[in-house]
Specification:
Layout (H helix, E strand, L loop, with lengths): L6 E2 H17 L1 H4 L16 H8 L3 H7 L12 H12 L22 H12 L9 E5 L5 H6 L5 E6 L2 H13 L4 E5 L15 E9 H14 L3 E7 L14 H5 L6 H4 L11 H25 L19 H11 L10 H23 L2 H18 L2 E7 L10 E7 L1
Parallel strand pairs: 2-3, 2-5, 3-4, 5-6
Antiparallel strand pairs: 1-7, 6-8, 7-8
Bound molecules: S-adenosylmethionine (SAM).
């Protein structure tokens, strides 16, 4: 089954079913988050693997984080890694060479974003040439402008008024005839913005926002659309609302926490940012040990996100202020240095234990993307799903191309 081709036709359904089985069969391995458990439910069953992961360092975890499938670890790790690779394999959509545009088109666009836009645009091959692009959650409309430079019409929908104004100004300056409309795409009147002549495009519209597009565009009879989803966990509902019949009848029910798993891959951050992130997590893990003692309850206690300045406080103050915030009992005399060190030790363990969970990151993402693809197939679209760029440009590199039959 491994393929370096995009998924198309019946392969979408058969791959979805295989992913569904894989995710259901191993739920006990990927659902519990090491961050919130002192001991994971699977550790007793796979003791050799658990012990092996727990003795590794933070640096070793970091090195394996983005490609856990490559780690040689005790079973069942290697076997699951092989299955994960097989089930996640999906090739690039064919690319065309884009006509180059004036360099000033990309002024104001951060370098990586422009590369994503170029990659996305180069994959848009449709039977019928688009006449009117509809850039969905467009920001300043950079993607739409990149595509509409040959005189096709362009409408950009965006709800941040500053981005709408900045986008309109850029289009005028570049001589591109575009309408930048202020629109909350979740509002009841949004359907009025779509018609069958539009070719909607959405680069990284979050959870509900791109799902809304899929529903409205298929209802409006848009002849073609292209969507690169992201932030599957940004939804209003309290749990995942499957779109396709297959997903609706699957036993796999996904919580908001589960939906965050595909997003846990990190784009390489600088040393300072990494250190800050690690310090924050090590402190939280140390505080978690303390709060279990203070409350006499051996359970994780969610804490709010804290301003970065909290990391400049001495560790004892950090714990005392957080305990006060959570209205916990007074803290008895502590060996703060020892508690802080236990936080760092736990961080190394958590990050290594997470590697097993991370084997399910891409399979879960593909399951979610294929749910969208299957929904569109059911609405009479011919759908192709593949990558539009390498993951170092963006880990959210899957694109769904749909054309009405
Ligand atoms: C991740 S950005 C992507 C922007 C652009 N497509 C790009 O790739 O640069 C998501 C955009 O959606 C906009 N947005 C968020 N919620 C929205 C809503 N309810 N209606 C319209 N736009 C929304 C945000 O303001 C932001 O510009």
């Amino acid at each position: 089954m491994p393929t370096d081709l995009p998924l198309h036709d019946d392969h979408i359904r058969s791959r979805f079913q295989a992913l569904d089985r894989f995710l259901l069969d191993h739920q006990t391995l990927w659902r519990p988050r090491p961050f919130t458990h002192l001991q994971l439910p699977w550790e007793s069953q796979h003791a050799e693997l658990a012990t092996w992961l727990r003795q590794r360092t933070l640096e070793q975890a970091e090195a394996a984080h983005n490609q856990p499938e490559r780690l040689i670890a005790p079973q069942p790790f290697s076997q699951l890694a092989a299955e994960s690779i097989k089930l996640s394999s999906v090739g690039p959509l064919p690319a065309t060479t884009l006509e180059s545009v004036e360099a000033r088109m990309s002024v104001d666009v951060p370098g990586r974003k422009w590369q994503q836009i170029e990659a996305f645009a180069s994959r848009l091959q449709f039977q019928h040439p688009p006449t009117h692009w509809l850039d969905w959650c467009a920001g300043k409309g950079h993607l739409g402008r990149r595509l509409a430079h040959q005189g096709q019409a362009l409408t950009c929908l965006e709800y941040n008024p500053d981005l709408v104004a900045a986008g309109a100004q850029l289009s005028t300056r570049l001589g591109i005839n575009a309408s930048h409309l202020h629109q909350d795409v979740m509002a009841d009147d949004t359907h009025q913005r779509l018609n069958a002549q539009h070719t909607p495009i959405a680069l990284h519209a979050c959870g509900d926002l791109h799902v809304q597009l899929i529903k409205l565009a298929s209802h409006a009879g848009c002849a073609q659309l292209a969507i690169a989803p992201c932030c599957y966990n940004r939804i209003n509902a309290s749990e995942y609302q499957p779109l396709s019949q297959e997903a609706q009848t699957s036993a796999l029910k996904l919580s908001i926490d589960d939906l965050g798993l595909p997003l846990s891959e990190t784009v390489t951050a600088g040393a300072r940012v990494r250190r800050q992130r690690d310090t924050s997590m090590a402190r939280r893990l140390a505080f978690d040990l303390l709060q279990r003692e203070l409350r006499g309850v051996d359970d994780y206690l969610p804490t709010p996100s804290l301003p970065a300045a909290w990391l400049d406080k001495p560790f004892a103050d950090y714990c005392q202020h957080l305990a006060a915030l959570k209205e916990l009992p007074a803290i008895p005399k502590q060996d703060w240095a020892a508690l802080e060190a236990r936080g760092w030790q736990r961080l190394a363990q958590v990050r290594n234990l997470e590697l097993l969970r991370n084997l399910f990151r891409r399979p879960l993402e593909l399951w979610l993307v294929l749910d969208r693809a299957l929904y569109l197939q059911d609405k009479n679209y011919d759908v192709r799903t593949g990558t539009f760029c390498e993951p170092h440009l963006t880990p959210r590199n899957l694109l769904i191309l749909s054309e009405l039959k």
